[in-house]
Amino acid sequence: MSGYTGVAVVDLDTPALVVDLDAMDRNITRMTRVFREAGVAWRPHTKGIKVPAIAHRLLDAGAIGVTCAKVSEAEVMVAAGIRSVLIANQVVGEYKVRRLASLCRWADVMSAVDHPENIRQMGSIAREAGVRVGVLIEVNIGMNRCGVEPGEPALELAKVVRDTEGLVFKGLMGWEGHTQRVEDPGEKLRAVGAAVGALRRSAEICRQAGIPVEIVSCGGTGTYRQTAVQPGVTEIQAGGGVWGDMYYHGTGAESEFALTVLTTVTSRPAPTRVVADAGKKTMSSDVAAPKPRDLHGVTKVRLSAEHCTLELERPVEAPRVGDKLTFIVGYSDTTVCLHDVLFGARNGVVEVAWPILGRGKLQ
What CATH number has the domain bearing residue 42? Predict the structure, then answer.
């Protein structure tokens, strides 16, 4: 998008989603170093990134492809020239599966599965389309969300995939998200090891049964340091660490706070209250509240639809009405999707404005 290059960030109209490019690049370097030293591949999740230009930046840094949550997100990435995509979710329903099959004409697009009916439908549509769809069995390794149980149930489903024409069994995936908030480092490593161990043993059982397992995929931003060193893991899906936010900071992730929202103070109705023009339609607070970056003594952050209200511990004159106020994003996954444009800045000056092409891609 033109018209923004060279503009001072502080002069942007608000609310505005801004990424510090230097901080983001340092986050990318930090993550790639961990994966390189551990000897695992990186397939970053783009559900909280949504900008193909950023995805290409990650590929340039060494990522082997990307992970998406939905077919529509994968369509955006494939249209932008990305050729290796894992949809780490169940693609269910004839219309969605037909779109998945169409994508396989243009790129190597894989999908997670955890039920025989889904597998049979996917195979039938793939055969009709004349393509082969790569499939990973999702295994429940403790999140108790999606996924077949580890061990024999995973093997039995792998056999169904193997025997279904039109599909190619690629491997297994899991998500150890229930371990993210374990605070003690040693206990966290043990918890991740137990979860990923169930995934690894499931892969071993498949191999023993004569079913090759090429991919063992797992790992998020809150766990990637512990997951990357687990034996048997071939790739890590962590993506949100390139942004850094309050939620991932609370999981022990070492990412810098690169992603912020610039706001304008619109009201000072009391000496201990500040109101800005960015509410729930701008900043997510579902799992972690956004934090004012340069304003100290804040005792409460409250979001309504269009307002952010800050309560202060003591009366202050600044910031005044019309001043700009920067917030560290609470949770990037549910904040980026609220915006149309991401401003990339360096040293306080806009260098690039990217349309957030993955916004609204829910199907």
Answer: 3.20.20.10
